Amino acid sequence: MSDLGRVIMVIPTYDEADNLAWLIGRLRTAQPTVDVLVVDDNSPDGTGALADELAAADPAVHVLHRPGKGGLGAAYLAGFAWALETGYDVIGEMDADGSHQPEQLHRLLEALLDADLVIGSRWIPGGSVVNWPLRREALSRGGNLYVRMLLGISIRDATAGFRVFRRSALEKIDLASVQSTGYVFQTDLVTRCLRAGLTVREVPIEFVERERGDSKMSGAVATESLRRITRWGLRERRDQLRRALGRSKGRPTGAS
Ligand SMILES: Nc1nc2c(ncn2[C@@H]2O[C@H](COP(=O)(O)OP(=O)(O)OP(=O)(O)O)[C@@H](O)[C@H]2O)c(=O)[nH]1
Ligand SMILES: [Mg+2]
Known about the structure:
- By secondary structure, the chain is an alpha/beta fold.
- It has one domain (2-247): Spore Coat Polysaccharide Biosynthesis Protein SpsA, Chain A, CATH 3.90.550.10.
- It is built from eight helices and nine strands.
- The strands form two sheets. A seven-stranded mixed β-sheet has the order 3-2-1-4-7-5-8, with helices on both faces. A two-stranded parallel sheet has the order 6-9.
- Helix 1 (20-30) links the parallel strand 1 and strand 2 (35-40).
- Helix 5 (134-151) runs parallel beside helix 8 (219-245) and helix 7 runs parallel beside helix 8 (219-245).
- The longest helix has 27 residues, at 219-245.
- The protein starts with 6 loop residues before the first strand and ends in an 11-residue tail after the last helix.
- The structure holds guanosine-5'-triphosphate and magnesium ion.
- Residues 95, 97, 99, 210 line the site of magnesium ion.
């Protein structure tokens, strides 16, 4: 992918010792010119030390250690800051648990040739999930429908975490004002890209449920998503109404 310049995939980890070497091995085989940044939140199972070993053996692998579990969004923000500062042209996201397949990353990179952000999507034609219980699928589809309706965006899988951004996109969306710490970070970023007039494309992927290790999805993470999306949606509706009524010079809209 020489046209795209230097590419790095940021992989946040919390207790992924059973998955990390396997995943990074696959990634380095599938995409030998793509670098890797592991962002570990001081995992109790020793994932951070394992990442250091992988980095010592392969100069394309880098590690960022954070002091404790701060959430997926916070880990990505730290990783993006490092990658931007280090000069990468394309900065991507993927999970460490094998749900996002390195062998399908080429689909995202190819689509980025004429986009600013590409999302690997489960919920467009050709996309799929493997080994998901019906309840989990209903939750993801329902969550995405809620996002589309409330935020007025047309993205089918706005919560997905297999993505590639051009550095210019990340530079345009004011990462310093992002406050989402959990998984709602994904929805936050795609919405910011759309509002900034950037081109967002979805490509189909096959999402495979993790086989090893535990999910970090929690009630608190889900609550943060629901609360923030509802607040953004209501604010968007209020602003639309103001514009329609022709008195848009009202109060400033603060970040949340
Ligand atoms: N650094 C860091 N990584 C995290 C944190 N929470 C989750 N992750 C990582 O983010 C990725 C996605 O988390 P998962 O637990 O797989 O979430 P999920 O895919 O919604 O849940 P499953 O479908 O059960 O796997 C994994 O690589 C996690 O290790 C966190 O607080 N800090
Ligand atoms: Mg997962």
